[in-house]
Amino acid sequence: MDLRRLKSDLMITGIIIISLLGMIPLIHIFLTVAWRGINVIARDPLGVLFKEPPIPGSEELGGIGPHVLGSLILISIASLIGIPISILSAIYTVEGMSKRLGPLTSLLVRIMIEFPTIVIGLSVYGAVLLIEEFINDLVKIFGLGGHIYIPRFNPITGAIALAIVMIPYVYTQSEDGFKNIPHHIREAVYSLGFSRIRASIVLSSYVKSALLSGIMIGVSKILSETAPLLFTAFGNDHYVTRFPDVFLNPIGSMTLWIYKAGLSPYDNWIDLAWAAAFILLMIILVLFVISRYIIYKR
Amino acid sequence: MKNIENSYVLRIKDLNVWIGDRHVLKNINLDIPRNTVFTIMGPSGSGKSTLLRTINRIIELYQNVKISGEIYLENIKINDQNTRPENVRRLIGMVFQIPNPLPHLSIYDNVALGPKYNKLVKSKKELDELVKWALERAYLWDEVKDRLHEPARVLSGGQQQRLCIARALAMKPKILLMDEPTSNLDPVGSSKIEELMIELKKIVTIILVTHYPFQASRVSDYVAFIYDGQIIETGPAEEIFTRPKNPLTEKFVTGRIG
User: Fold this and answer.
1) Residue A10 lies in a domain
2) Per residue in B134-156, pLDDT tens?
3) I need a surface site. Which of A95, A228, A246, B126 has the fewest CB within 10 A?
4) With contacts defined as CB-CB under 8 Å, which chain B residues touch A96?
5) Residues of B65-85 as b/e, b for ≥16 C-beta within 10 angstroms?
6) What whole-number percentage of chain A has pLDDT above 90?
7) Is B183 on the interface with A (CB under 8 A)?
């Protein structure tokens, strides 16, 4: 065997070993979460998904029902707020609605990606306090009695914080999608006498896979967020079923539960933290596979 | 005098276009007679496509473009701030160099898109009839009538280009701009499009851009020769091809520049 061949084989073997080493932590995390999580869920699958958390330290397993539901509510509201804003901003930037503000929007949204998410949660909390103070000042000025209280910890503030986290991810994918539309397609659409808004709608259908993968990435991102929820959703181990109480009270989320229960000294809570981690991991994995598939199809 | 005015569907007066610092079109003056094939020919980079894109204001999609001069469609000025570009584009259709049907839409939807969203039809039945009419005019109906709901991307290049013509015709435009519509097609596809142009001028005025003098001689009623952003010579096709006045025009039509 000649020396060149030997060197090449050695390099390739080295690269494979280093890649495998790099994957060890990832595989370890995945297997640990899966092993621990499945063991807990297998004890009472429906209970884990639907019951409320148990008394800490008791023999009871209970479940993370309010947190699963809470995550669903938070993600849904955040998506309703974040997705339209992101896609409309991307259209605004790329379709040249404003020659000056467009590039500025693009720059600012890209900076937003770097914001620490805990600061976003804190800002939303701060904003609620400021609004409350402003309203109470008005109440005083107009001589009305009493004190107006705005609930800080509820699904709406939580969802707003998550939407802010989500926007740059959905935006960048959408912006790239619109930017990559070939000139001849854009010209074809505009040549049919559509206004910019109508043309943008038609072009959106052309880039729908970019938009969808952006949405998937954005949703996976906020599914795994804890920090923005600490000062907003706050966490709640119980179902709140009555309307409108559900929108005025703290709400649970799987990530907040993992944070709280994982740090606790109680075995049954820690078990449920593993269960939550596994459910979360599975949802994110599915979303990731869907988004990769969409990108691959593009 | 009035009759002469009315026989022109489009009039361009002192048109100048700058893209960035480059003066791309210089003092263009053209009168386009109704229901003719009017060809703008010239070598690559002479400003032909820019001129077409200025007429239907597609050029305004791009930045750093400055335009002066006047364009009248049937005596109405169409290139001022008071006229919305989309209204101009509804009346002036365009077919591009690259066949560009929207690949994610069906054959039917490609043709129906314009009339549907611009509310040119009142019912589904009316839309179906319009789609059929446009596809027939573009000599495509017989080839696609059984697969209207297949994606447009399955068609051949020539068919795609005829689909684009049908798409433009469905808007019932007054003028059809054709920007080198055959340059990406094989000879069979090209000759079909050329036949089509001669047939279509009965219902719409065609402004064709080409850098093939032979194509221009086959289909045109009138020709303008453009070189380096300036109209060098314009007149009836027969005159330009048999008795060109300008030596540059002569060089171009005889294939010595291009």
Assistant:
1) no
2) 999 999 999 999 999 999 999 99
3) B126
4) 61, 63
5) bebebebbbeeeebbeeeeeb
6) 82
7) no
Best mutation target, A192, A204, A294, to test chain B (most B CBs within 10 A): A192
First to last CA, chain A: 44
Tell me how close the Cα of B102 comes to any Cα of chain A, in angstroms: 7
pLDDT at B258: 67
Mean pLDDT, residues B159-186: 94
Q: Which residue reads 């030596």 in tokens?
A: B247
Q: Is B9 a domain residue?
A: no
Range of the domain at B162: 99-173
- From chain A, the residues in CB contact with B97 under 8 A are 184
What ipTM goes with this model? 0.92
Task: Check: CB of residue B38 under 8 Å from CB of residue B224.
Answer: yes
Report the candidate in B203, B233, B210, B205 with the shortest Cα–Cα distance to residue B221. Answer: B205
Asked whether the bond before B247 is cis by omega within 30 degrees of 0, the reply is no
How buried is A50 (Cβ within 10 angstroms: 0-12 exposed, 13-18 middle, 19+ buried)?
Answer: middle
Give 3-state DSSP helix, strand, coil % of chain B, rounded to 5. Answer: 40, 25, 35
| pLDDT tens sequence across B51-87 | 999 999 999 988 889 999 999 999 899 998 889 999 9
Which domain CATH number covers A289? Answer: 1.10.3720.10
Instruction: Find all residues with CB under 8 Å of B42, minimum gap 6, and list them.
Output: B48, B211, B225, B226, B227, B252
The answer, for B57 touching chain A at a CB cutoff of 8 Å, is no
Structural domain including A162 reads: 44-297
Q: Give A198's contacts in chain B (Cβ within 8 Å).
A: 117
Nearest by CB to residue B96, choosing from A187, A195, A198, is: A187
The pLDDT tens digits of the residues spanning A24-65 come to 999 999 999 999 999 999 999 999 999 999 999 999 999 999
How near does any CA of chain A get to the CA of B118, in Å? 7
How confident is the model at residue A96, as a pLDDT? Answer: 72
Note the pLDDT tens digit of each residue in B191-246. 989 999 999 999 999 999 998 899 999 999 999 999 999 999 999 999 999 999 99
Q: 3-class secondary structure for B99-121?
A: CCCCCCCEHHHHHHHHHHHCCCC
How remote is the C-alpha of A248 from its chain's centroid? 21
